[in-house]
Amino acid sequence: MADDSDGEYMENYSDDDLNDHRVHNGPDRDASRLGGRQLAQSHGSNAARKPRDRKKSNRTRAAWEEGKFTWDVPEDEEGNVSLSAFLEAEKRRRLLRDTTPLQRGIIRHLVLVLDMSTAMLEKDLLPNRFRLMIGYAVEFVREYYEQNPISQMGIVMMRQGLAKRISEMSGNPAVLVDRLRELEKDKEPDGDPSLQNALEMCRGELFHAPSHGTREVLIIYGALLSSDPGDIHDTINSLISDRIRVSMVGLAAQVAICAELCSRTNGGNDSCYSVAKDEPHFRELFLAKTTPPATLQAEQSSASLLMMGFPSRTKAEAHFEPKQTKNPAELELRREAAQKDAISLCACHHKPCREGYLCTRCSTKVCRLPAECPACGLTLILSTHLARSYHHLFPLRNWVTVSWSEAHSSSACFSCLTPFPTVPKSREKGRTKDKESEKEKNEGQAATVKTNTDQTKDLAKISESGRYACVVCSNHFCIDCDVFAHEVVHNCPGCQSDTRAAAKAQAHLDAAEVTGDGVTHANGAMIVD
């Protein structure tokens, strides 16, 4: 049955059209073309052949089954197909995002809602929607706490028309990952989902969230219906009054009530609801929610101070009773042995541990940070946690492409020292003529904040020289360092390693420049007055 449909599909196209738009790899290119002609002819003449003969024949895969089309794969200057350029363009596309500094909530309280209905057993996303969702959820939990170390998260599932809590609000990613692994082993998707029951449970989870933090709900939805016990519009009104934002990632198709839910709870912003096209797109939409949302104008309140404690790591104190001895060295050895074996209970989990952190207010011991003191309620964090959350407020600017006329100033990547491609002789001759025009163009890119669509498309282009320049320090980097700087460290290696006084002063002026919207841009660095 499948062979007949494949043959009919190929028969509608001529051999020239079919083979001209197919990308082949290896020496079998000519053989595949010949096999395509033989299949088309055999299908027209031997339509009534036996099934066993059909199995023995070696047919060529249809155009939609293998390879890419020529209009999807970029070409280099000589007209050859370049897959490396395609991958580099994909990296640049994922990197480019709005770098305008906005007020964001760095203390987040998020509830992850997972769809466990029968719709998650579909295999349009391999191996199926449920397995893929659990795998990406584990990755999302780890990335969420990496980007938001002082935030909390809970997990809720929708199954058989009910909502069930998988994990309470916690700041420990290991606990959430264990709950997801247990869910994958013990439960299977069944029944219909209920958005209203899940949203009501999320309201209860976020009811005690402090006002200085965000209240968010992220729903992974694979069904096209919702089995609700009441009017979901009443629940939406309650979410709006409680200042709870809802974002959704659909796996099937866009649903009207889901679009209305996300739009109304986000102040009319329709970008909070997206539908995944394939596995990479699903992962991209999922991990994009690790960035905290911008604070709405109506939610802004007067500035207030939040009390936090910054404890240091300590060891459990040993109860040592010195015996009668005249040897000081032996006494010290006994004291060290007792200190090494000393353990005490933590107040957060009531488990014995040797090391921990003492609350700066009441000296209660907790085993890990960030945490909230079980005795006095003080928020306990490390200074590194606070510093890692600041890159959302001061994002690193997008780096610009470097043309061949400016590529002669660098021969290797400033960060990893990877050699750059050499400047072609044809471009070297015209370098003097184009130097002034290209310099003015780069200066204009460095001084202008790219917000409109045309400028964003210009940045999305890959660099012809394989170089990307920071608009502050003007150092050249490779595409891999570009990805690493913007997605991992969120700082420019050139700006951080510049020790010259003049460069420091200039970098400080550039970092503190005010954009056209009157917003201070710090290029990934935290400015302390």
From TrEMBL:
It comes from the Eukaryota. Pfam families: C1_4, Ssl1. It is found in: Nucleus. Residues 1-61, 424-452 are annotated as: Disordered. InterPro entries: C1-like_sf, Ssl1-like, TFIIH_C1-like_dom, TFIIH_SSL1/p44, VWF_A, vWFA_dom_sf, Znf_C2H2_type, Znf_RING/FYVE/PHD. Residues 109-290 form the VWFA domain. Keywords: DNA damage, DNA repair, Metal-binding, Nucleus, Transcription, Transcription regulation, Zinc, Zinc-finger. A zinc finger (C4-type) spans 359-376. Residues 49-59 have a biased composition (Basic residues). Residues 19-32, 425-443 have a biased composition (Basic and acidic residues). CDD domains: vWA_transcription_factor_IIH_type. GO terms for cellular component: transcription factor TFIIH core complex; transcription factor TFIIH holo complex. SUPFAM superfamilies: Cysteine-rich domain, vWA-like. GO terms for molecular function: zinc ion binding. PANTHER family: GENERAL TRANSCRIPTION FACTOR IIH SUBUNIT 2, GENERAL TRANSCRIPTION FACTOR IIH SUBUNIT 2-RELATED. Component of the general transcription and DNA repair factor IIH (TFIIH) core complex, which is involved in general and transcription-coupled nucleotide excision repair (NER) of damaged DNA and, when complexed to TFIIK, in RNA transcription by RNA polymerase II. Belongs to the GTF2H2 family. This is General transcription and DNA repair factor IIH.
